[in-house]
């Protein structure tokens, strides 16, 4: 391995037919390039898709009332299901595996009619009535002031936490919003905090146009009594919300007098199940990338093996001379194996380098253009590259094994006679 003469012979052998060497190396180059590039693209798609979940607790579900589809206990079908605040307490008591059960109320909506004003400025914003726990289910960065607390809930304080786009719409540039008052459908609320969404994709624009007020204050100010619009429910880390979903729905059907088999009466969205589908999909795509890259790499290895067989045949006389001068079978075999490994590694490392260059270009273009929906930070784990190098080394050994074995089976006299 450390013999200069050996390396000179290898370089001379590879340079003897440059075009053939280049074409042979291209198979391995292309295989490793495809493998790394496919994995980087898959990771980019995975990072982009999971970014939409990054600002929220993934082990969560949302639940809301709809219309019944079955008559039950003397009540006709088509009845609207209305959740009550007491339902929250029942869920917490019957299912201790639940970490948070947040009742929610909503007023207005993004891009709807103007419902918020300050001085002469007005805007259409979504107003949510929430409990303090909600910030652990839908993550927000409080950039000024504070978030809602239980003092706001218990004292029914007219406090408001507003999004960054609300500030842009209702305040002048440089104006401090904390401590000022805004009117929500004619009711004055004091701004105690400003938030921004950590997510830069998906519905972050809509959330930046949102105003949060205490749930109890919402009920009193807008006359919703003990009604609950919908619920955000998060399970403890040791259990998935998907495994508890049927129990939750069953309890709510019993609470609201809904037929046990009525699947339409209560709507739900299982974020954990959706997240699991996404991760499962990208695991499959990663597997496809590995399989495709491995197959292309295998074809390149077979190509190197075939070329090395030709090289051995062309160098039959040389091998005969070496054997006649006392070269052992292992010396001959080592020469062929080393040539095969060098050719494989050089072409493989070139493929990794070009793939790394492609990844850098993609990330550079993304940094110039800004965030792209469902695609972010294409990259490959260094472990994958190390494994690829190990595979390349093994491939080089296997590709040179048959030609090397054939070279050592030659008798010196027969090899010298061959023309």
Question: Can you walk through the features of this model?
Answer:
Strands 1, 3, 4, 5, 6, 7, 8, 9, 10, 11, 13 and 14 form a twelve-stranded mixed β-sheet that branches. The protein has a two-stranded antiparallel ribbon with strand order 2-12. It is built from 13 helices and 14 strands. The two termini are 30 Å apart. The radius of gyration is 34 Å and the shape is elongated. The chain has helices at 4-16, 18-51, 85-94, 150-154, 164-170, 204-208, 215-221, 241-255, 271-314, 316-324, 329-369, 382-408, 412-417; strands at residues 60-65, 83-84, 98-107, 116-118, 121-123, 126-130, 141-145, 159-163, 181-184, 187-196, 210-214, 227-228, 230-235, 266-270. Helix 9 (271-314) packs parallel to helix 12. The protein has 419 residues and is of the alpha+beta class.
Characterize this entry briefly.
This protein is an alpha+beta fold and 419 residues long.
Structure keywords:
single chain; 419 residues; alpha+beta; twelve-stranded mixed beta sheet; two-stranded antiparallel ribbon; 13 helices; 14 strands; elongated
Secondary structure topology:
Elements: H1 4-16, H2 18-51, E1 60-65, E2 83-84, H3 85-94, E3 98-107, E4 116-118, E5 121-123, E6 126-130, E7 141-145, H4 150-154, E8 159-163, H5 164-170, E9 181-184, E10 187-196, H6 204-208, E11 210-214, H7 215-221, E12 227-228, E13 230-235, H8 241-255, E14 266-270, H9 271-314, H10 316-324, H11 329-369, H12 382-408, H13 412-417
Parallel strand pairs: 6-11, 8-10
Antiparallel strand pairs: 1-13, 1-14, 2-12, 3-6, 3-13, 4-5, 4-9, 7-10, 8-11, 9-10
Helix pairs in contact: 1-11, 2-9, 2-11, 3-8, 9-11, 9-12, 11-12
